[in-house]
């Protein structure tokens, strides 16, 4: 990541005053994914280890495991989450500064409060804790190490990698982010629990690794049907277009790439007509009246989409619209749209064939796609999630857990004094609004009372978030420097 940043901005702008002063140095284990910071608390193993479950056909299957002490901390974390009081999570993290789920949860809070630096730091600390627990045979680069997402102990590693990847992308390091994307995909390429295939094309285009994406499409199309995903249908066409525009390309090769790009984009528009108008809207481009008035690209193309296709379309458009804003790309899109309308008017058999495929497929999306949409936080996509997802509680440290999870230990039953049958949502509202009562009898409330309650709820939530930000700003994990470290390595930071 630093190499990529230095290439763009120069070493001095990136490094600044990061080199720690000699007497305040702490000494951490050397790691690949993150660079330990001198401001971090002194590391002691939090109770996470990694075990090799089996080796088969050149593939190694690993899993993280939690010690008894770590399990107790995990139970306290779940209690803290249920209490709806962020003070409890902060207190837990002060006692256990490398507890993974607490780091992930507080990182989300910091990010919401736009404290990106602390949010990123907490994720990096989580990754450092994981890497210190790696099995000697576990490899980040070989592509032969697997982690089963069905095991809860492994999920936090996936989520930490994903969040770190997104921070890298937002910092202008798409190539490094792409490597993390490939890493996540390699951990379970068959199940792809975070659906990285919906993201890898975007990062590859951002990195201008056009041949890489086309090779992936060629290698995986037969067994994964990538062309059925809107993102691959459009992004592979965009790859060929950019290859045709490169100055060092032979004219004959350039013409060949452009012809392929034209054909692929037209096919993508015929298969996924619902992409065009939302894409133009986000690009702030006014479509030609001949396009908006045509039934193929008009409002009917959005309204007639199956639920899963609407979700995939919204995700692709919301994530990649900036890639289409370039003038040359938009002109190419305009030409392709006109050609598609000619094919539609001429009753091209592909049009009806694609229409039948859309009706048969995309009726419901698998759980990993919903999980990816939630993690993406792309509003165009999250608004298209089905009710069975939006009406259930979603925890940031474990969004939409698999229904067939492999549980290695369970949380003990808790005895609630004066237990009631109130739901978690009811308890949450009652914690914010003391007068909130879901269990009582029916009450006649007018619109004024409802509006006042909603306003009070918003005020309480805002107070809660302000208090959380103040607490986070006042956390100090720095420990006094020690000069008696027997494992001191004078060259570690040089």
Automatic annotation (TrEMBL):
Coiled coil: none
InterPro entries the record matches: TCF25/Rqc1 (IPR006994), TPR-like_helical_dom_sf (IPR011990)
PANTHER family hit by this protein: NULP1-RELATED, RIBOSOME QUALITY CONTROL COMPLEX SUBUNIT TCF25
Species this chain originates from: Amphiprion ocellaris
Protein known as: Transcription factor 25 (basic helix-loop-helix)
Gene Ontology cellular component list: RQC complex
Alphabetized Pfam families for the sequence: Tcf25
């Amino acid at each position: 990541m630093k190499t990529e940043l230095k290439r763009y901005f120069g070493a001095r702008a990136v490094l600044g005053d990061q080199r720690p002063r000699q007497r305040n140095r702490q000494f951490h284990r050397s790691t690949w994914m993150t660079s330990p910071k001198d401001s971090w608390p002194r590391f002691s193993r939090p109770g996470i280890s990694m075990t090799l479950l089996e080796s088969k056909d050149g593939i190694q299957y690993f899993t993280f495991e939690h010690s008894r002490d770590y399990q107790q901390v995990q139970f306290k974390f779940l209690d803290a989450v249920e209490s709806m009081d962020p003070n409890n999570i902060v207190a837990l993290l002060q006692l256990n500064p490398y507890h993974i789920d607490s780091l992930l949860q507080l990182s989300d809070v910091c990010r919401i409060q736009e404290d990106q630096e602390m949010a990123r730091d907490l994720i990096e600390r989580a990754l450092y804790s994981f890497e210190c627990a790696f099995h000697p045979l576990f490899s980040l680069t070989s592509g032969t190490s697997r982690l089963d997402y069905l095991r809860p102990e492994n999920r936090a590693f996936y989520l930490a990698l994903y969040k770190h990847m997104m921070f890298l992308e937002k910092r202008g390091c798409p190539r490094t982010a792409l490597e993390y994307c490939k890493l996540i995909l390699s951990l379970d390429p068959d199940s792809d629990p975070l659906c990285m295939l919906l993201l890898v094309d975007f990062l590859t285009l951002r990195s201008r690794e056009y041949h890489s994406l086309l090779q992936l499409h060629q290698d995986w199309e037969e067994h994964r049907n990538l062309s059925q995903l809107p993102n691959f249908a459009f992004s592979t066409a965009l790859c060929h277009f950019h290859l045709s525009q490169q100055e060092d390309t032979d004219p004959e090769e350039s013409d060949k790439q452009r012809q392929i790009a034209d054909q692929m984009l037209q096919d993508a528009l015929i298969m996924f007509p619902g992409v065009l108008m939302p894409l133009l809207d986000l690009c702030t481009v006014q479509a030609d009246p001949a396009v908006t008035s045509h039934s193929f690209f008009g409002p009917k193309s959005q309204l007639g989409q199956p639920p899963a296709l609407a979700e995939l379309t919204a995700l692709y458009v919301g994530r990649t619209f900036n890639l289409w804003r370039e003038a040359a790309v938009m002109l190419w899109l305009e030409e392709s749209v006109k050609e598609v309308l000619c094919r539609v008017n001429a009753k091209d058999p592909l049009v009806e064939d694609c229409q039948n495929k859309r009706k048969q497929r995309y009726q419901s999306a698998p759980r990993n796609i919903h999980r990816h949409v939630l993690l993406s936080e792309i509003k165009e996509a999250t608004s298209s999630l089905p009710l069975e997802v939006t009406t259930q509680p979603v925890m940031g440290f474990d969004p939409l857990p698999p229904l067939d999870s492999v549980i290695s230990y369970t949380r003990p039953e808790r005895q609630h004094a004066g237990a009631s049958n109130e739901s978690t949502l009811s308890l949450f509202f009652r914690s914010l609004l003391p007068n909130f009562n879901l269990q009582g009898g029916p009450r006649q409330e007018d619109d004024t009372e409802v509006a006042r309650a909603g306003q009070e709820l918003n005020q309480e939530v805002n107070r809660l978030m302000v208090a959380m930000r103040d607490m986070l700003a006042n956390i100090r994990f720095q420990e006094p420097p020690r000069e008696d470290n027997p494992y001191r390595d004078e060259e570690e930071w040089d």
